[in-house]
């Protein structure tokens, strides 16, 4: 969920403002309001998606924008529910092949490298709605027919935040569609790798259908430098497994999946654990080639 990050930066921004007011001037201010040029960005991304990413799909990009705008503007900035977006979502139905659904929580950077390498995986950000609104911030203002480009409330300050409501519905749709084997990437370097308040824990998990999903394959990944706090046999992931069992899902759980470890090491070859891995792989190569 891209905008988790944006919402976080807004919250962090506010904290910074209170403690270091001089940091609040200049370009950093843009963080607080609707993303500038949002209309051009969304319509441009929509054409990119329907022309280059998923050619052949027919969507009316201009109409999607109009429905989005209608949902958000002229509402007070904390008063946009999922229902406001229904017409927009109706404009963008999507059907996804099974066995490709990739869910994640607190592994944002890694998950997108993973999906970029293993092209058969799809995340929410690969769906049309995810693609259009990734990393954007928006809110309207009462008594005005435009977005508020100056200031948007922090995500956490209201239950019906326009950004949150859109991602909530998008996540729910994504999880409801999930079928076959699905994969969940969790971060074993944090306490509560499985967090019931996260988008995955609160929305997606509840929307998965045991009749459609064959296996929930959990992968727990820690940072090479640690800490190694949670795993398949330790911490909140046990709770996730309990929930899956009680709902009749089949599941597997893997710690330190080799592909994921290698992917992390590609970005940090000098880390001691990565050097060990590299040496092992080189040794094996020597053995097989001699
Ligand atoms: C929020 O929306 C509801 C229904 O659309 C409306 O009755 C209410 O007055 C709005 N609240 C604010 C603070 O704008
Ligand atoms: C785990 O979470 C921490 C804290 O948010 C983050 O710095 C780290 O990159 C995450 N690790 C992975 C593998 O995504
Ligand atoms: C689904 O996952 C299970 C357990 O990991 C595995 O045995 C099976 O081969 C997978 N099926 C597909 C279609 O990937």
Task: Summarize this structure as a short list of keywords or feature phrases.
290 residues, alpha/beta, ADP Ribosyl Cyclase, Chain A, domain 1, 4-stranded parallel beta sheet, binds 2-acetamido-2-deoxy-beta-D-glucopyranose, ADP-ribosyl_cyclase, transferase activity
Structural class: alpha/beta
CATH homologous superfamily - what is it? Answer: ADP Ribosyl Cyclase, Chain A, domain 1
Reported CATH architecture: Up-down Bundle
Low-confidence stretches: 1-30
Query: Major beta sheet, specifics?
Result: 4 strands, parallel
Mean pLDDT: 87
Tally of alpha and pi helices: 11
**Could you please say which CATH topology applies here?**
ADP Ribosyl Cyclase, Chain A, domain 1
The ligands bound in this entry are: 2-acetamido-2-deoxy-beta-D-glucopyranose
Count of extended strands = 4
Question: Helix share of residues?
Answer: 40-55%
Based on the structure, what is the oligomeric state of the protein chains?
A: single chain
Strand fraction equals 5-15%
Q: Report the order of strands and helices.
A: HHHHEHHHEHEHEHH
Radius of gyration: 21 Å
Domain unit count = 1
Task: Categorize the overall geometry.
Answer: globular
Strand order of the largest sheet: 1-2-3-4
In short:
This is ADP-ribosyl cyclase/cyclic ADP-ribose hydrolase. The chain is an alpha/beta fold and 290 residues long.
């Amino acid at each position: 969920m891209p905008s988790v990050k944006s919402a976080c930066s807004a919250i962090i921004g506010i904290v910074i403002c209170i403690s270091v007011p001089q940091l609040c001037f200049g370009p950093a201010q843009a963080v607080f309001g609707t993303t500038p040029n949002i209309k051009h960005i969304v319509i441009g991304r929509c054409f990119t998606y329907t022309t280059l990413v998923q050619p052949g799909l027919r969507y009316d990009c201009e109409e999607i924008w109009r429905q989005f705008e209608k949902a958000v503007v002229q509402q007070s900035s904390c008063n946009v529910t999922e229902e406001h977006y229904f017409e927009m979502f109706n404009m963008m139905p999507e059907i996804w092949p099974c066995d490709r659904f990739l869910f994640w929580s607190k592994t944002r950077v890694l998950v997108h490298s993973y999906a970029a390498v293993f092209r058969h995986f799809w995340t929410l950000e690969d769906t049309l709605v995810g693609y259009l609104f990734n990393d954007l911030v928006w809110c309207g203002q009462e008594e005005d027919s435009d977005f508020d480009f100056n200031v948007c409330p922090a995500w956490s300050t209201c239950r019906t935040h326009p950004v949150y409501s859109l991602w909530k519905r998008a996540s729910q749709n994504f999880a409801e569609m999930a079928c076959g084997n699905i994969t969940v990437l969790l971060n074993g370097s944090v306490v509560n790798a499985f967090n019931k308040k996260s988008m995955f824990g609160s929305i997606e998990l509840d929307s998965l259908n045991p009749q459609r999903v064959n296996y929930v394959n959990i992968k727990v990944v820690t940072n090479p430098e640690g800490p190694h706090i949670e795993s398949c046999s330790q911490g909140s992931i046990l709770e996730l497994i309990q929930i899956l069992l009680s709902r009749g899902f089949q599941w597997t759980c893997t710690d330190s999946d080799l592909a994921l470890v290698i992917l992390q090491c590609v970005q940090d070859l000098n880390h001691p654990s990565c050097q060990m891995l590299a040496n092992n792989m080189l040794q094996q190569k020597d053995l097989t080639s001699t």
